Structures are given as structure tokens and as C-alpha cells.
Amino acid sequence: MPVNYTPPTADALLPVPGVALGATAARIKKWERDDVVLVVCEPGTAAAGVFTQNRFCAAPVVVCREHLASSGALRALVINAGNANAGTGERGLADARATCTAVAAMLGCPIDQVLPFSTGVIMEPLPVDRLVAALPAARKPRARTAGSTRRARS
To answer: What value does the mean pLDDT take over residues 58-67?
Structure first.
């Protein structure tokens, strides 16, 4: 973390119409701070991506490429810290897809409209059970959208 930097409070952030944010602690690395962010977008949101050209890329990168190539539509981003889900092979791909499946079920949208992102330690299995269990808390009413605090709409 930068020296002498104080992060802004939630009330200081400007809302983005059609986007709701939520965060919670899934304890991916056993810390108490928030490590999962859920960004929910209104239906009809389009997305595009620019990806690494490296043949060695993390499971979330592979899944994001697949999902964007499939539809280009976006309903949610799910982001976790503490574990990059990189260098994890088929299990990592399955974990990234399971995360997308859980978010899609919660929002009632197609799986390919959910994009997963992970950052943190590489070559360790993602504790996907903790991440999925934390998702409902990341969708709680403290999410902000269009200038008010309310639950994200699906």
C-alpha cells in the first residue's frame, strides 16, 4: 500500500448508473478484510476485453476470453484477491467456471455473461467453496447504484 495514502470511503465514491458494487470477506487467505467484489450491471450491458498474448495465462483469463467470444454481454464481474487461480490447470478452470455458475444462478442470467477475475498467489488451488459462499453477502444492500444505496437488481 502507498505511504500516506488514505483510501476513499464508500460515500466519497461517485455512483455509476446501472452498476452496483458489493464487497465482502470470503477469507480466501484467512484475513478479515474484504477479498471478494461483485460488480452487477444492468441487462443490456456490453463488454470487450484486451488480453495477454502469453500462452501461459490464468484460468480466469481463459474463461473471460470464452465468455466474451460467446456473447459480448455482461451482467457481472466477480473479483477475488489472495489467490490468482493461475497455474492451476483443469481444476483452476473448473473453479473459475463454478464461480461464474454461482453468480449466474444468483442473478438469473446466462453463465457467459459473468466474468471472473483473480489476483494473488499463483499455483495454489482457489478455495472456490469460500468464494461461492461469500457471494450473497457481496450482493447485500450496501452496494451503490445510481446515487443510492440499494440491492443490485437482477
So the answer is: 97
Q: Which CATH number fits domain 10-149: 3.40.50.720, 1.20.1250.40, 3.40.20.10, 3.60.70.12?
A: 3.60.70.12
β-bridge pairing 19-24 and 114-121: unpaired
C-alpha to C-alpha distance for 84 and 59, rounded to whole angstroms = 9
- Tell me which of 110 and 151 has the higher pLDDT: 110
The chain-wide mean pLDDT, for the chain, equals 88
- Could you give the 3-state DSSP secondary structure of residue 24? strand
CA distances from 123 to 83, 119, 154 (A): 9, 12, 34
Q: Who contacts 15 (Cβ-Cβ below 8 Å, separation ≥6)?
A: 144, 145, 146, 147, 148
